[in-house]
Design a protein that fits this description.
This is Short-chain dehydrogenase. The protein is 45% helix and 16% strand. The protein is built from seven helices and seven strands, in the order βαβαβαβαβαβααβ. Strands 3-2-1-4-5-6-7 form a seven-stranded parallel β-sheet, sandwiched between helices. The chain is globular and about 50 Å long. Bound molecules: NADPH dihydro-nicotinamide-adenine-dinucleotide phosphate. NADPH dihydro-nicotinamide-adenine-dinucleotide phosphate (NDP) binds next to helix 1 and helix 4.
């Protein structure tokens, strides 16, 4: 990699697996310094160790504003500030709309939507200082809602609406890019609490051809465009998913 000491600094939430971990690897390989945030500290520490220079692991739950404030302070101290925030942490707790899933609904809104909003609010001063980038990981579910995905889609439609407003408010200081993947092979469906839905989803994800690395490359490409170009939105799907 290039000179890691000069590289832009990217903070990635949900960097312990899937798209977040792949994005950390991709950006680090492109010369970025990366701060890996997640709850599973062992995983982000192992990834930071693997990447070596210019990678730090910070244990943080995105539903805990105090933990995000502490993370922002640590990034400022160790890296001097944040240029890129990737709001990636998320859960997809699909299932039929019912009272039994009500804890899932609250969790998805708190992690996917409020978590991204809070992380952005906390890191915004650092992003504004010198030309920053905000990358919000939405989904195809931010544009299309299917049976059993209502509240998940609500969080991703929410991300899209909030991002559109924020982009108008923050450009040209901070670019806001929304990434909308279709099915990507990750751990995402394993946390579904509704048994039949989880089994169906895991079958679908088990044969997914699009990898977290595919998505990470797209994110890295978008971030590497010159400052006069802002990529607002990227929808990417498996070629077989109409
Ligand atoms: P993974 O389950 O592999 O990754 C989810 C990440 O989110 C983990 O690193 C997890 O870390 C983190 N996370 C979950 N809850 C919290 C929390 N409260 N605080 C901090 N981090 C949290 O799935 P993906 O990589 O697939 O998901 C990443 C994003 O991509 C999500 O926003 C998802 O909605 C989106 N997406 C995924 C698609 C797919 O098909 N896979 C398609 C479209 C969008 P930890 O548990 O260690 O905290």
């Amino acid at each position: 990699s290039q000179d890691q000491k000069q590289g832009r600094v990217a903070v990635i939430t949900g960097a312990s697996s899937g798209i977040g971990a792949a994005t950390a690897r991709s950006l680090h390989a492109a010369g970025y310094r990366v701060a890996l945030l997640a709850r599973r500290t062992d995983r982000i520490k192992a990834l930071a160790d693997e990447l070596g220079d210019g990678a730090i692991a910070i244990s943080a739950d995105v539903t805990d504003r105090g933990a995000l404030v502490a993370a922002a302070e640590q990034v400022k101290q160790e890296f001097g500030g944040t240029d890129v925030l990737v709001n990636n942490a998320g859960v997809m707790l699909l299932g039929p709309f019912s009272a039994e899933q009500r804890d899932d609904y609250r969790k998805m809104i708190e992690v996917n939507l409020l978590g991204a909003i809070t992380a952005t609010e906390v890191f915004l001063d650092q992003l504004k200082d010198g030309g920053g980038d905000l990358v919000n990981i939405s989904s195809v579910a931010g544009r299309v809602a299917n049976v059993g995905s209502g509240v998940y889609a609500a969080t991703k439609f929410g991300i899209n609406g909030w991002s559109e407003s924020l982009r108008k408010e923050l450009l040209p200081d901070v670019r806001v890019t929304v990434i909308e993947p279709g099915v990507v092979a990750t751990e995402l469906p394993t946390h579904i609490t509704h048994e039949a839905t989880r089994q169906g989803a895991q079958q679908l994800y088990g044969v997914a051809e699009v990898t977290a690395e595919d998505v990470a490359e797209v994110i890295t490409f978008a971030l590497q465009r010159p400052r006069h170009l802002a990529i607002h939105e990227i929808l990417l799907r498996p070629a077989g998913q109409a």
